[in-house]
Design goal:
single chain; binds flavin-adenine dinucleotide; 17 helices; alpha/beta; FAD/NAD(P)-binding domain; 7-stranded mixed sheet; 508 residues
Length: 508
């Protein structure tokens, strides 16, 4: 069977790329190994609870933002409901209990009130982040614009250049003296990377700008709603999305990717089916493409290109179903970052991410604080989430793995109990998802949802482009440019589709 484009994986990057290409008239085939579309952007049912797998919050939709343009074009806003979060987050650390407002002018004022001696630096901080956001909005998009601006890039985009040469932690150290202020601003840095002193300022500042400027959002009913909508949109545009179909290899001819071999998902013995296309787009993890799906010279070249690249950290989640919403026992905030008291400065964040679960900092997200649509009337769901690493779980036998999961849940819930007395008593259901769970459902190596680490050395332009070094093969995922998270994967999918369309036009 021949297609214009075959997309391996129905994560947000794959779905967005396929939706744009199908809308433009391409004949597309999306192959997904799981029985649901969405990758990390999925939900699962337990009792009457809908558990959200991969969305705490996504940054909002600035009038001129690229994401808003994409969602407008794909008619997402008419079909998926977004719920604005009441505040950004709460930080609890030692004597600090700070609620970061979702309005950045108010955030600035409250931080200046609390840290008057840092007022000038606070002003500079927000000016830099918001300025970077404006530069990103005005990035050259067409080939012509890119040509004109290349030599003048540092002149037009000084903050962007600076952000790719600094770490988030280094930037904070240059600006601020008070560790409490740094910790408040870095509370959610774990959403980007495990070490603020290795985290590229570009990823941190670009992401934070989205939240500071446009607020945080949840998808009503869970992220599965967005993934399902995109799948149905592709089908309405004449595209095919096949679930439970695992791609086992990419077919190359004269060094060019021309198709794939796939089989019924999870059935090792089913016959392989061939499908051919003008190009192949991998939403699947790039290391997987290099080591498993591409054979021969093409695979070796991609392995060599990526040999030095480091994979990002993973996360552990305790999924919780509550008999009654935590607000009934006094919770007031959607997401609370609990920074452990053993941390004395931002420099300790990395070692804390590897500490025991009796000390590891965590975030508690209470979906019951908004109209999330995840639980029946009078009940609620929530998650406790921490940084985590597949290597700490890999060699455990089944029983030890199960016991460790139970122990970790007990530890984290007991620590939450100290902040929110009574939480234990209202838990009706609990389940732990480890990095290995993420790996099992998405095939992402080491269960990383963010692709290659968003560190200084793999920042922005150093990230793999959407067009691979193998002719006919493209990338649309958190692993490729621009990066991870919902917004990153959606932008990766769309820019990948634009690249494919540009190359197709040039060929014609
Ligand atoms: C617990 C958790 C919390 C998160 N919280 C947030 C958050 O609050 N905000 C935010 O912005 N981001 C968050 N993220 C990150 C975000 O969800 C991901 O970065 C993003 O969804 C990744 O999208 P992707 O397109 O790269 O693909 P993925 O979601 O990784 O999906 C890849 C898809 O490819 C499929 N696939 C792989 N190999 C094959 C094959 N051989 N054949 C067929 N199919 C294949 C997989 O099954 C999968 O469906 C979170 C993630 C997790 C896990």
């Amino acid at each position: 069977m021949n297609y214009d484009s075959i997309i391996i994986g129905a994560g947000l990057g794959g779905l967005t790329a396929a939706a744009k290409l199908a809308k433009t008239g391409q004949k597309v085939l999306v192959l997904e190994q799981h029985d649901l579309p969405g990758g990390c952007a999925t939900t699962f049912q337990r009792k009457k609870f809908t558990m959200e797998v991969g969305l705490h919050e996504m940054d909002g939709f600035g009038e001129n933002s690229f994401k808003k343009k994409i969602f407008d074009e794909l008619e997402v806003f008419d079909n998926v409901e977004f719920v604005r979060l009441p505040e950004f987050y709460r930080t609890v650390w030692k004597d600090i209990d700070f609620v970061f407002p979702e309005n950045f002018e108010e955030a600035k004022a409250r931080l200046k009130d609390m840290f008057p001696e840092e007022a000038v630096a606070i002003e500079k901080y927000f000016r830099f982040i918001l300025g970077l956001g404006l530069e990103i909005e005005n990035l050259p998009r067409t080939k012509m614009q890119k040509r004109i601006k290349k030599s003048l890039f540092p002149l037009f985009y000084p903050k962007l250049v600076r952000s790719t040469l600094n770490t988030a932690g280094g930037f904070m150290d240059k600006l601020f003296h008070d560790e409490r202020l740094k910790m408040i601003l870095l509370s959610n840095s774990s959403y980007y990377h495990d070490n603020p002193y290795d985290l590229s300022l570009f990823y941190f500042a670009a992401g934070q700008n989205g939240y500071y400027s446009n607020g945080g959002y949840f998808i009503k009913g869970g992220s599965q709603k967005l993934s399902n909508y995109l799948m149905n949109y592709i089908r309405q545009q004449g595209g095919e999305v096949l679930l439970r179909k695992e791609v086992v290899s990419i077919i190359t001819e004269n060094g060019r990717a021309v198709g794939v071999n796939y089989r019924e998902g999870k059935t090792m013995n089913s016959a392989e089916i061939q499908a051919y296309a003008g190009q192949v787009i991998a939403n699947a993890a790039i290391p997987l493409v290099a080591k498993k799906l591409l054979h021969g010279d093409a695979g070796i070249r991609l392995q060599q290109q990526t040999a030095q690249m480091r994979t990002g950290p993973s996360v552990l989640t305790v999924y919780l179903g509550f008999k009654k919403p935590p607000k009934a026992i006094g919770n007031r905030i959607y997401s609370t970052f609990v920074i452990d008291d053993s941390i004395s400065s931002a420099k300790d964040i990395l070692s804390n991410a590897h500490a025991g679960f009796d000390k590891r900092s965590f975030v508690f997200v209470d979906y019951g604080m908004i109209d999330s649509g995840l639980a029946p009337e009078g009940k609620a769901t929530g998650v406790i989430c921490t940084m985590d690493y597949a290597s700490d779980w890999k060699d455990l036998d089944k029983k030890t793995y199960r016991l460790k999961k139970a122990e970790v849940a007990e530890n984290l819930i007991s620590r939450l109990e100290k902040i929110l007395p009574g939480i234990k008593k209202i838990i009706e259901y609990q389940e732990v998802g480890t990095p290995l769970t993420i790996e099992r459902y998405t095939f992402n190596p080491d269960g990383t949802p963010y692709g290659y680490a968003q560190n200084l050395h793999q920042s922005a332009r150093k990230r793999l482009s959407n067009k691979s070094i193998v002719p006919g093969l493209y990338f649309a995922s958190a692993w490729s440019s621009p990066g991870g998270g919902f917004t990153g994967a959606i932008l990766a999918g769309y820019t990948c589709a634009l690249k494919v369309l540009e190359d197709t036009r040039e060929k014609e």
